[in-house]
Amino acid sequence: MGDRWHVEVDRSLCIGSAQCVHRAPDGFRLDSGMQSHPVEPDTDANEKVLAAAENCPVEAIMITLLEGGEAVFPPEE
Question: Mean of the pLDDT values across residues 53-60?
Answer without folding.
Answer: 97
